[in-house]
Design a protein that fits this description.
The chain is built from four helices and seven strands, in the order αββαββαβαββ. With 233 residues, it is an alpha+beta fold. The protein is elongated and about 80 Å long.
């Protein structure tokens, strides 16, 4: 009876021992038995960057004000300063007591002189209306046709990624055989999205803005043939 119990115990332990020594179950790839984070990744992944400066012809205008102001006179002053389609209203979707007022509009054919004119007009209006204050004035570029500079920046970004990938492959003794995946960020903002803030790359001194694109590219690689020229895209 004791011998029978020992034999049953040995038979029960055999599959555990076999799997522990043999790795993942037969018929499955080695990486399938590993968590996704531990699975080896193939290829070379790099980030390419491309940017192009674009002249700005149209500028959007916004000013945050506080105090009582007659809407008709404010809009008339904005038009006289060269602001097209001026509007006046709350800065967001909520209305509350003592809330600031946002002035908005567009300045076509933007030049340094036109922007100076807007600033001078704002200062003059405040002097003529005691109790009215302007907390800030923002101008930002509006690119109605951004497709061409975006494609230029995209081409430069991919060329930058390819240069980096080929340099890394050469150091590792590998050959680049193609592209596995591409993920893009940056580029043109949608026309209806705000473009305020330093991130828009707008330079008031030159009246230009930047369109930037980043490409995360994973290249397919293989060992480079000994004595043979490495293949490139």
């Amino acid at each position: 009876m004791m011998i029978k119990r020992v034999a049953i115990l040995v038979l029960a332990l055999l599959p555990v021992g076999a799997n522990a020594q043999g790795g993942p179950p037969r018929g499955l790839p080695a990486a399938q038995g590993m968590p996704p984070s531990a699975a080896p990744s193939a290829g070379i992944t790099v980030i390419g960057h491309g940017s192009v400066r674009v002249p700005v012809r149209i500028v959007t205008f916004a000013a945050m004000t506080r105090g009582n102001a007659d809407e008709a006179s404010v809009l008339a002053a904005m038009r006289a300063a060269g602001i097209v389609d001026p509007s006046m209203g709350p800065p967001g979707s909520m209305i509350s007591a003592n809330q600031a007022t946002m002035l908005r509009g567009t300045i076509p054919g933007a030049t340094e002189a036109k922007l100076d004119q807007v600033g001078s007009a704002a200062a003059a209006y405040v002097r003529q209306h005691p109790g009215l204050t302007i907390e800030n004035i923002s101008v930002a570029p509006r690119l109605d046709d951004c497709g061409t500079p975006e494609q230029t920046a995209r081409t430069a970004a991919f060329a930058d990624a390819r240069r980096k990938g080929e340099a890394i492959a050469a150091l590792a003794g590998l050959s680049i055989d193609g592209v596995e995946s591409v993920n893009e960020s940056g580029g043109c903002l949608a026309p209806d999205l705000p473009q305020f803030g330093p991130a828009n790359g707008f330079d008031l001194g030159t009246l230009t803005t930047s369109v930037s694109v980043n490409e995360v590219v994973t290249f397919i690689v293989s060992p480079a043939p000994s004595g043979a020229r490495r293949r490139t895209l």
